[in-house]
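Chapter review: from sequence to fold.
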Amino acid sequence: MGEKYKDLLIEGKTKRIYQDHQLFRQAFFLIEGKTKRIYQDSDDSDFVIVESKDDLTAGDGAQHDVIEGKAAWSTETTCNVFELLDACLVPLAYSERLDDTAFRARKCEMIPLEVVVRRELHGSAIKRQPHLPTGLLLNQLKVEFFLKTPNKKWRGRPIRFDDPMIRFKLSGDLELYNPKAPLHSRKPFKKLAYKSLPKILKKALEASMLKRISTMAQRIFLVLEKAWSLQNHKLVDFKIEFGFDTSGDLLLADVIDSDSWRLIFEGEHQDKEIYRQGGKSKLEELAIKYSHVAELSKRLVLPRQQLIFWRASDKDDMGEFENALGEYGVNLYIRAAYLTGSLHKRPVESCQEIAQQVQDVPDAVLIVYCGRSNGAGPTLSAQVTIPTITVPAGWSKCPEDVWSSLRTPSDVPVSVILEPKNAVLHALQILAARHPAIYAELRIRQETRLDNFFSI
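The token string follows.
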């Protein structure tokens, strides 16, 4: 916890002793939910403190238990996830971790929507579409919206089902559906006229804002999908919430922890699903899994990577490569090194220079752009262990030059790509296998042109 959240009592050479800040939380309490409490930050009215509880709920509150340690595991997971997303430039309410069970965040007016993103069909998605099998892979991510209705109430009035699924009408009106019943041939159980909606919901449902929320949710999912896959876990869906801060900016808010997603390892759920299905009998098993996921979440970090560009002469223009990097929006995630040297005129120095680059950042891809030295790509490939791509600079005028890169000796692998932009994309695809942010940047573009081959 930051020093300003507790009183310094005494300081020694190697440690500081502080007064516990629990009384501070009680004095500035704002609101309490099923699994957390919110407190006003005493130093800045634009910030709050989010404290997790040991409570566990399921079935819209029908199941409720307490697991000692859950608050700490939730906070550990949430803060590690938010730190990763912050590194990926996701707009967050999260500011900093305070202690084992609390973090600081920007105060937000929460949008009364739960945003669900699915890579596979599980849980209520199967209940709404019983003709499809559990675990069905979605080639294109599915984004769904549910209205938040605590205790089966909407704006103080009773409603038949908690957190109903929403379908949007062109008029701006909302149709509400039972989230746990088949959708086929069913009519909405309730309609909400646009003019009756609260101001914040109207703001969120503006076409441009709703699109932004949907795109942000997909990008966040893609980052976490790749990050967890690198830990040999499969993220199949999650639920997140957004809000507007005091400046009116849209931010990812609330928490993301093991209550928020379905996470599978070797076919077994590492999330609340086992509690939904097994109740109290699964509490001990659930505690082990939540603790394990919290520990694993410490590894959700971005790798250090680089893209090395080699050209034989300063006359070889790198503009198309630089433009491609900017277009794919990855400049802040990877280091780009530009080297120039003739393998004909100074081979020893050139090989030494590339070896030093690879030694500094081994997780790298090499792109070689040469005009009259098309053999440079295979030569450099033989000196390094990283993937190498050759782009023959003068192939359109001298197409026979590409043979020096196509017909290579044994143990000299090299890819040949004629277009600079495609070469950059191929290099980024290689790096994306280990980089959640690059994966998300590339995949979000693909999502717009992919299809699911069935109705969902």
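Two observations follow directly from the output. The chain has two domains: 108-299, 306-434. Residues 207-229 form the longest helix (23 residues).
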